[in-house]
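Why do we care about 3D structure at all? Because function follows from shape, and shape follows, mostly, from sequence. That is the central idea of this module. The next example makes it concrete: a single protein chain, its amino acid sequence, and then its structure expressed as tokens.
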Amino acid sequence: EVQLVESGGGFVQPGGSLRLSCTASGFTVSNSNIYWVRQAPGKELEWISSIYPGGSTNYRASVKGRFTISTDNAKNTVYLQLNNLTTEDTAIYYCAKDAAGTFRGQGTQVTVSS
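And the structure:
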């Protein structure tokens, strides 16, 4: 069964950091495009980052330079390092097998507040 499980969310102050994890089962992340998407309160789901076989990456402009996507192939896990967080980053974060987030995990909540 193909499954994605996110973890690592939490409550942080502006300027803080978190590392989100996405553990996959039923397929190999190193051979797959993996996406992080998020949904802020009252807003639509939006794509924020991608990683492709071979390791190339892509980022939404608003997170570029602050967020870093990576994989640990031995753990079949994809990470999203979130640095210099702002209140605008408050959202539920999902990893997904497509950029639209159609096939995604259950999500992990990130709340940035002072």
